[in-house]
Amino acid sequence: MAVTANSIITPQTPQSASVPFGATANTNLIAPTQTTLLMTAGANGGRLTRLEALANATQAASQVQFYRSVDAGTTKTLLRAKAFPAYALTTTSDIPVLDFGFSDDNPLILAAGERIYEASAVTVTGVVGRAEWADY
After folding, report:
1. b/e per residue, 88-115, with b = 16+ CB within 10 A?
2. Are 121 and 26 in contact (CB under 8 A)?
3. pLDDT tens, residue order, the chain (136 aa)
4. Pairing, β 13-20 against β 127-135
5. Taking a C-beta distance cutoff of 8 angstroms, is the pair 106, 48 a contact?
6. Rounded distance, CA 49 to CA 95, Å?
7. How many other CB atoms are found less than 10 A from the CB of residue 77?
8. Distance between CA atoms of residues 41 and 134, nearest Å
9. What is the DSSP code string of 7-55?
10. In what order do the strands lie in the sheet with 115-120?
11. What's the DSSP call for residue 56?
12. Do the Cβ atoms of 46 and 15 come closer than 8 Å?
């Protein structure tokens, strides 16, 4: 995108993604090997305003992890990790949503082509990662 000096550039294209976590546990926070790609920012970068994990099946308690990568996944850096409560799927209970705190008031600015990956510290039977962002 061509830019003009001293002109504000706003996000142009709303995006969303919803991707199941990979089944295999990731136990290495420094050099994760068991991750799943959640989203990729556009060619001019992006502005992430929602990042969350939710159960879609019975799931043991875990730690869910999100990583960022600016080199197409070769190097992944831990972005955030939170405890995910155990959940037993029923047709009458609320499904827990674990919010990672990004919003319009507190966005995560993404570099051009930057990727967000997700992982779990234990074997996954039912967790989905969700992201909402806009590409510049």
Report:
1. eeeeeeeeeebebebeeeebbebeebbb
2. yes
3. 566 666 677 778 899 999 999 999 999 999 999 999 999 999 999 999 999 999 999 999 999 999 999 999 999 999 999 999 999 999 898 888 999 999 999 999 999 999 999 999 999 999 999 999 999 8
4. antiparallel
5. no
6. 21
7. 12
8. 8
9. ------EEEEEEEEPPSS----SSS--S-EEEEE-BTTBEEEEEEEEEE
10. 36-40, 115-120, 62-69, 77-84
11. S
12. yes
Q: Which residue has the tokens 């510290």?
A: 121
Helix residue ranges, H only, 49-123: none
Q: Answer left, alpha or beta for residue 4, where phi above 0 means left and psi between -120 and 50 means alpha.
A: beta
Give the type of residue at 109: I
Closest CA to 15 of 35, 39, 36: 39
Alpha-carbon gap, residue 17 to 131, rounded angstroms: 5
